[in-house]
User: Which sequence fits this backbone?
């Protein structure tokens, strides 16, 4: 009987810890079928409607070097946005930045979310976030996914 109680307590503890643990933020990958300029024309107002400030709305073309050569893409970057969610231990507010690459040759879109907090004037980035912040961070990438599919981009 005592063994069953211990087993039950252990199972409950594991379930509670796994449900309340931090979540890692992974980049989001999407596919598009139309031209990149049309995607940009839809993405910029959508990103701005979520409270983000796009830092480069008119200068988006970027060439980067990869292992297989040069890749040309349209690149959007947002300014850091205050999330309204605070770290429980430090009391510092989390800030979020979004980076979007629209690759011209492959028809792929990559959305990378950066999360951090301001500490003594500098932003310290983190890789894993609590569940309530994870929902805030992934709202824009999921919204862009829905935009691509609903507008047949």
Assistant:
């Amino acid at each position: 009987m005592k063994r069953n109680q211990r087993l039950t307590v252990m199972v409950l503890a594991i379930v509670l810890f796994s449900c309340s643990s931090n979540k890692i933020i992974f980049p989001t990958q999407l596919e598009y079928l139309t031209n990149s300029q049309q995607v940009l024309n839809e993405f910029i107002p959508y990103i701005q409607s979520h409270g983000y400030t796009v830092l480069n709305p008119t200068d988006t073309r970027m060439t980067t070097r990869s292992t297989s050569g040069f890749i040309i893409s349209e690149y959007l970057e947002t300014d850091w946005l205050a999330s309204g969610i605070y770290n429980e231990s430090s009391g510092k507010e989390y800030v979020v930045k979004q980076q979007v690459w629209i690759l011209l040759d492959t028809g792929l879109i990559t959305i990378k979310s950066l999360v951090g907090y301001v500490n003594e004037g500098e932003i310290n980035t983190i890789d894993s976030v609590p569940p309530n912040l994870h929902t805030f961070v992934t709202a824009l990438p999921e919204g862009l996914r829905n935009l691509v599919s609903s507008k047949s981009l």
